[in-house]
């Protein structure tokens, strides 16, 4: 697959992970009603995701620093997809909390690895030099 499309695919995956993190905020009252908890307790589902991504992801990245990035990315994306399916079938608040932790941890790792891989791949792409384009003809330049 062309590096350009891999970068777009990784960006799309990171976009979906971010969407999954915060989409529950819009339906928090329905989730609270379905799980028979208060709205503030259901808000923990967002907090648990964010904390597990913020605390757990850097630790796992440090542990797997010498591992192949492709295999790490495939594993954590698989865990993220599996945990998303588990959230769908969760019928208790406790199970939902655990699966949101898994989502946060795997999503945080996937985001970090995807950004690192995309940055490396984007560096290999050929970009036109500054001064070739519409902006340079109108007086705007990208020289620093």
Which descriptors apply to this entry?
mainly alpha; 7 helices; 78% helix; 144 residues; single chain
Shape: elongated
Overall number of domains: 1
Helix content: over 70%
Which band does the percent of strand residues land in? under 5%
Major beta-sheet overview: none
Please report the distance between the alpha carbons of the first and last residues: 34 Å
Number of strands: 0
Catalogue the unreliable spans. Answer: none
Oligomer: single chain
Give the class from helix and strand content and strand pairing: mainly alpha
What is the C-alpha radius of gyration, as a whole number of Å? 19 Å
Q: Compute the average pLDDT.
A: 87
**Topology order in helix (H) and strand (E) letters:** HHHHHHH
List the total number of helices.
7
A few lines on this structure:
The chain is 78% helix and 0% strand. The protein is mostly helical.
Write the layout of secondary structure elements.
Blueprint: H1 3-26, H2 28-35, H3 39-42, H4 44-63, H5 69-89, H6 93-124, H7 134-137
